[in-house]
Inverse folding.
């Protein structure tokens, strides 16, 4: 197997072992593809649990000690081109890696009860922060008689971002979308449960490579047919990272993403009379003036402030945790030193 078919660039190897790419993560066990094919793998404990190396996620390129008849050993994680993360929904704090080394982020929303502009703003912010290019895909176009309202609404929150309307049921829009996927290029799919990610992957592949779940009639939501993140190579050579439907998508370190996702807000920031303007009651506030004159939407401003506050909270919690960890390590080191002296 040629690892370059999975997006690897020869010459980017570092350290011992052979290069591989992580295709799935199952708690402490990984699936990796390398020159010998697919293999199960575990982490080198001293590197990851005793050091500061980035734990691999789906899409990561790693250096691997291949074991033919058992689990191979992941020796190191190679530097990432792009990276998508969120606040860990299980622990309520800390960062959870979602995917790495992708070129495009396809944000899926269906034209039923799933359609939600505030969620789309959240997805866009994290997509821009990752360093990749966002693409919006409105699925289940067969459910809508008129698309103009949806397209106008999306255009207001995602100016300049490519938008595709598709229906896997009728085939509408699939040919145009297919042109976005090219050999060796990696795309990550993001969307809530029941939005049609698995159906779309099957349609792009031209065969059923993923199971498809049913949609509840009462609320238009579906079950998690994708239970873990996984990397798939389509017959044409394009690579897709599919993700489970995310009930929570907490902000994490998104300063650049906010600038890209909210250009209508950003153009007024820094234009206030006072540098430390809180945009509440100060004279000469450019934001308040824009709101009063209708140049800036109140809904967009509220959404921006909400995401900004959420990201700041996550950052402060992470900073506090790092200080506590450093303090604990310092205490442990002092105790060891005193024990040696006595």
């Amino acid at each position: 197997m040629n690892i370059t078919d999975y997006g690897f660039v020869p010459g980017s190897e570092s350290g011992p072992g052979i290069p591989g790419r992580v295709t799935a993560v199952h708690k402490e066990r990984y699936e990796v593809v390398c020159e010998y094919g697919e293999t199960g793998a575990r982490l080198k404990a001293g590197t990851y649990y005793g050091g500061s190396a980035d734990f691999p996620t789906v899409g990561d390129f790693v250096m691997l000690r291949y074991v033919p008849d058992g689990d191979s050993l992941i020796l190191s994680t190679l530097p990432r081109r792009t990276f998508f993360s969120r606040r860990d929904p299980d622990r309520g704090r800390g960062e959870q890696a979602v995917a790495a080394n992708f070129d495009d982020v396809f944000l899926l929303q269906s034209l039923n009860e799933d359609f939600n502009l505030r969620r789309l703003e959240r997805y866009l912010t994290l997509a821009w922060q990752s360093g990749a290019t966002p693409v919006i895909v409105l699925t289940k176009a067969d459910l809508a008689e008129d698309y103009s309202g949806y397209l106008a609404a999306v255009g207001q929150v995602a100016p300049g971002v490519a938008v595709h309307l598709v229906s896997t049921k009728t085939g509408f829009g699939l040919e145009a979308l297919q042109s976005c996927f090219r050999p060796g290029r990696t795309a990550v799919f993001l969307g809530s449960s029941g939005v049609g990610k698995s159906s779309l992957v099957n349609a792009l592949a031209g065969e059923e490579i993923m199971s498809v779940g049913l949609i509840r009639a009462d609320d238009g939501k579906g079950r998690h047919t994708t239970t873990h993140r996984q990397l798939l190579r389509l017959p044409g050579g394009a690579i897709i990272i599919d993700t489970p439907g995310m009930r929570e998508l907490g902000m994490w370190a998104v300063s650049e993403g906010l600038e890209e996702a909210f250009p209508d807000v950003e153009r007024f920031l820094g234009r206030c009379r006072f540098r430390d303007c809180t945009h509440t009651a100060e004279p000469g506030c450019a934001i308040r003036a824009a709101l009063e004159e209708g140049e800036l939407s109140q809904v967009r401003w509220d959404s921006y402030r909400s995401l900004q506050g959420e990201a700041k909270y996550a950052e402060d919690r992470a900073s506090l945790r790092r200080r506590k960890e450093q303090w604990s390590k310092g205490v442990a080191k002092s105790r060891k030193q005193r024990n040696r002296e006595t």
About this structure: Residues 298-341 form the longest helix (44 residues). DSSP finds nine helices and 13 strands in the chain.
